[in-house]
Amino acid sequence: MSASLPIIIKLEGVEKTLGEQPVLKGINLDIPKGHITTIIGPSGEGKSVMLKLIIGLMRPDRGKVIVDGTDLARINDRELNDIRKKFAMLFQSAALFDSMNVFDNVAFPLREKRMVAEQEISRWVPEMLGRVGLGNMGHKFPAELSGGMKKRAGLARALVTGPEIILFDEPTTGLDPLMAHAIHDLILAMHKTFRFTGIMVSHEIPEIFPISDWVAMLKNGKIIAMSPSGEFRRTSDPIVREFISVNNGIHPTSG
To answer: Could you tell me which residues come within 8 angstroms of residue 158 by beta carbon, excluding any fewer than 6 positions away?
Structure first.
């Protein structure tokens, strides 16, 4: 990675065991500020565990998770909560509250975390819903939304607080290819507008390459490759090529 790129998150020698199963076995990873970095790899390798470590929902057994210069292992709960204000997250399921309409779901972090005045909420929420294509959907409840609409509402909720960092955990899971493509395009458009740092876990090969600035691959508990998206796609590394080819539906010996 270019030394001129500012790094907002660093994982140094991070290890994590769940139960008796070692999951992360010495992760070293730099996340550049203002870019979208996508982490790929086989299922069950611990990609979602990495996201939980980055946001402080888990602590590493060994190693450091450093966010904007702060080692999360060396701060108290109050300081950790302050660090978390830099973050938002878009979950696989969008994680909307079934008992709230779309407006109140998007307004939730403003009311609960930022204590924003209702006058401001009544202005910000419709604006954000309009940006994600749900301008007239604020009155609807999650049960009335399609899968793609739920993802859009989840993205609006993630964006409404103006976070520096957004974590995307398999953001297109459960969507058909056309809708998945639309959500990827929306994420890219929102990134161009708001310039947040994006960290995405995804299995969508090759769809993630056009929206990612950097791609890293997790395998056997370690990051085995990381490079700009275009270079990653053209890699000569046989393990990476095998993974990309198999998940792209192309036999690794073809083309």
So the answer is: 88, 89, 90, 166
